[in-house]
Amino acid sequence: MPLIRFDASSPLSPNAARAHWRPTAFLLCGLLLGGQHSLADEPDPMKAMLDHVAIVGAMVRACGHARPELAERFAHAQSSWWQRNRAVTVRLTELRGSADTARSRMLLRYYEEVKEKLRDQIEELEAANQRAYADRCDGVLEQIERGSLDYSPG
Questions:
Q1: What's the structural domain count of the chain?
Q2: Residue 105 domain-assigned (yes or no)
Q3: Is residue 51 part of a domain?
Q4: C-alpha closest to that of 79 among 148, 144, 27
Q5: Which of 42, 64, 119, 153 is the most buried (most CB within 10 A)?
Q6: Could you tell me the residue range of the domain that residue 81 belongs to?
Q7: Which pTM value belongs to this model?
Q8: Tens of pLDDT along 70-80?
Q9: 45-59 residue pLDDT tens
């Protein structure tokens, strides 16, 4: 199953929705890609945070690339996002600083895998010349700038 499903017509089952991240992630993926996602296999607050960070980062990169006229604003918006989400920065720093524990290594590997899967899916869309997500970048930028996509633990 792809990390993000781009077919908005197929709803996520109630069991899958309970097993996956918070509803905010549906908004994040929907804003940019108009699809749904399936990230963490089980509810885990740290994985939910890592999913959120990876999704916001992927949206910023994809839109900055697809809409070069917005790239500078996206870079500024992402910088502001990190400033507003200091707790996320602290948690990531702590996680990287404790990379000698099995759980930390697992979480860091998970985070890198999520980022890689998101990059791959966006690259697949680009290769297939399916760039409809670029039309949603204005709205994504506004959401990031307003703080609507800030991380809030569930």
A1: 1
A2: yes
A3: yes
A4: 144
A5: 64
A6: 4-146
A7: 0.73
A8: 999 999 999 99
A9: 999 999 999 999 999
Cβ neighbors of 2 (< 8 A, separation 6 or more) are 38, 117, 121
Q: Which residues contact 78 (CB under 8 A, 6 or more apart)?
A: 56, 57, 60, 144
CB count within 10 Å of CB 114 equals 22
Residues whose CB is less than 8 angstroms from the CB of residue 95 and which lie 6 or more positions away in sequence, other chains included: 46, 104, 107, 108
Q: How far apart are CA 32 and CA 91, in angstroms?
A: 26
* Strand ranges for 42-100 from DSSP E: none
Which has more pLDDT, 137 or 2?
Answer: 137
Identify the sign of the CA torsion 76, 78, 79, 81: positive
**Residue 151 belongs to a domain:** no
Query: From CA 22, how far away is CA 55, in angstroms rounded?
Result: 13
Distance CA 45, CA 43 (A): 7
Residue 154 lies in a domain: no
Bridge partners, residue 36, by sequence: 5
Residue type for position 109 = R
> CA-to-CA distance for 104 and 7, rounded, in angstroms?
34
Q: What is the mean pLDDT of residues 108-132?
A: 89
Tokens 């990876």 found at: 54
Place of tokens 């404790």: 98
